[in-house]
Amino acid sequence: MKILHAILQALLNATARLPFRAIYALSDVAFAIAYHLVRYRRKVVMKNLRESFPGKSEKELRCIARQFYRDFADYVFESIKLLRITDEEIKRRMTFDGMETVDRILGEGRSIAAYFSHCFNWEWAPSITLWSSMPNYAVAGTGAAFCQVYRPLRDQWFDSLMLKIRGRFNPISVPKQRTLRELLTLKRDGIPSITGFMSDQKPSHGDPTYVTTFLNHPTAMITGTETVARRLGMAAVYWDMTKLGRGHYNISIRLIAENVADTEPMAVTAEYTRLLQATIERQPSIWLWTHKRWKIPVNIENTNSQPINTK
């Protein structure tokens, strides 16, 4: 197994050294294999799209699916590229709007929960450390902590690889089970933080139930992000991802709440859900459609939730 890992690591390093032109040539090959030959989860993707966009024609849905697989292949190779990409290159390709809001809140000594989703290329988002005027606590020992919550993988070698990729721009990677404890420690030590929460998967066991209509489905949303932010008195922002072109992305930072503790219960989760649906409707091919997100039925009746309106 060690030999296999060494070979794989060498291949990944060699791939990461390639120019983007070659990276995207490999991505085109991977797309053709995944979409045409292997047909990787094609039935799941098409089922999700049909149910999420009942007003679209079959031709429109196939077009979205095809573009999704192209964007998915790009995501894979762009993530490998993080092993070798320079700060200058990533800043040219991954831009942020609204950093003044983040820097203002951090400069006031307050912390932020950043609602994020599996929109391509989410692995480039930790480069926010290059855009802030605040010193990076993980590097300078002062300033603000830039954190990301992650779920540890069972395979230790692959987990180590993903942490290396995700740690390229010196964020603090926080295991999901330790999130509250780590953020409480930062707060106790007087260190403001911004923490990225991927909040678009199925809720964890024990999350308070919030059910709404999301993408034409009764959906139980993740509420743990709001629970943590409310307990710690954090501000909340939404990272609105747009793919501008191949290898070029932008995140528009949208303020949801100055202090989650001052909002009505689940109001922040509801607004995040609305914003996320608007992102997906604007550019559906960049969301991760291969998951069986609605595998377990939920009942929207007899809840306080309401269908969302993205208009």
| Computed Rg | 20 Å
Structural category is: alpha/beta
Q: Sketch the major β-sheet.
A: 7 strands, mixed
Shape: globular
Number of strands: 9
Main β-sheet, spatial strand arrangement: 1-9-8-2-5-3-4
Q: Count of helices?
A: 11
Stretches with pLDDT under 50, minimum 5 residues: 306-311
Percentage of β-strand residues: 15-25%
Order of helices and strands: HHHHHEHEHEHEHEEEHEEH
Please estimate the helix content: 40-55%
- The N- to C-terminal Cα distance equals 52 Å
Helices and strands, with pairings:
Blueprint: H1 2-16, H2 20-37, H3 42-52, H4 58-81, H5 87-93, E1 94-97, H6 99-107, E2 112-116, H7 137-140, E3 145-150, H8 156-166, E4 172-175, H9 179-188, E5 193-198, E6 211-214, E7 217-220, H10 224-232, E8 235-245, E9 248-257, H11 267-282
Parallel strand pairs: 1-9, 2-5, 2-8, 3-4, 3-5
Antiparallel strand pairs: 6-7, 8-9
What does this structure look like?
The protein is an alpha/beta fold and 311 residues long. It has a domain at 93-286. It is 43% helix and 17% strand. It contains eleven helices and nine strands. The protein has helices at 2-16, 20-37, 42-52, 58-81, 87-93, 99-107, 137-140, 156-166, 179-188, 224-232, 267-282; strands spanning 94-97, 112-116, 145-150, 172-175, 193-198, 211-214, 217-220, 235-245, 248-257. The protein has a seven-stranded mixed beta sheet. Strands 6-7 form a two-stranded antiparallel sheet. Helix 8 links the parallel strand 3 and strand 4. Helix 2 (20-37) crosses helix 4. It is globular and about 55 Å long. Residues 306-311 have low confidence and may be disordered.
